[in-house]
Automatic annotation (TrEMBL):
Residue ranges of the TM segments: 12-30, 50-68
Top-rank taxon: Archaea
Swiss-Prot/TrEMBL keywords: Membrane, Transmembrane, Transmembrane helix
Protein name from the UniProt record: DUF2304 domain-containing protein
InterPro entries per record: DUF2304
Record organism: Methanobrevibacter olleyae
Amino acid sequence: MYNRLRVKKITPATFGLWVVICLIINFFAFAPKLSDPLAGFFGFGRGLDLLLVVGFAFTVYVLFRLYVKIDEINQNMTDLVRALAIHDEIKLEDIESELKEKKE
């Protein structure tokens, strides 16, 4: 993760977010009893139950974001291929007209 930040593939804010998420997960993984009061506040019996629900919700959110991003990339590729095909078709017509002129 740090290497991606170093080569500017991610922003410092994104790096900070992932560091905070990793620290929180590790904190509650090594001290699960500390999450019990927080779980009780949200109506869960154990802290682990809360962590699993939050983790599942986060996973669904990330999958949705990935789906949207892949769909955008797919649309961009379609638009690019369409534009290149139209551009090449115009060039082909110009070449064909030049060949006809040379024959005459």
